[in-house]
Amino acid sequence: xxxxxxxxxxxxxxxxxxxxxxxxxxxxxxxxxxxxxxxxxxxxxxxxxxxxxxxxxxxxxxxxxxxxxxxxxxxxxxxxxxxxxxxxxxxxxxxxxxxxxxxxxxxxxxxxxxxxxxxxxxxxxxxxxxxxxxxxxxxxxxxxxxxxxxxxxxxxxxxxxxxxxxxxxxxxx
Length: 173
Fold this sequence. Notes:
This protein has about 170 residues and is mostly helical. The chain has helices at about 1-10, 50-65, 70-80, 85-105, 110-130, 140-155; strands at about 15, 20.
């Protein structure tokens, strides 16, 4: 009889139009699931096609609001929808955002690892593409921010404030 309840839970899983499992549980600002009856943060819609400029502006607004998980979703959309030659750039930016997400969640191993992976990715893209400031973004500054934050997280062994540690995509204060 115990299998009936777990079977009904599996049958009740949320699915998208292609039949992929989707979890409709509310989420907090760092993307962590909350109880079904909790008030969560609105989810970032997936699969939105934006111009690169729109992606940069929207991601910065989300980072400034302490929502790096949501900024990661914007970068992921750009990575999946953008031109082949820019996919590594957007994937690297998504890694930086998810690295900040994990660092803010207190993952003192995974957060720094993703921050460094993203830093390497954007540096490699900049070198290969011969572009240092695509769409006005300061890739060298972002790489330095990521490496610095990775060290801070490892040294402190504590979660960081996502809003307080948010990067400036275009540099400056």
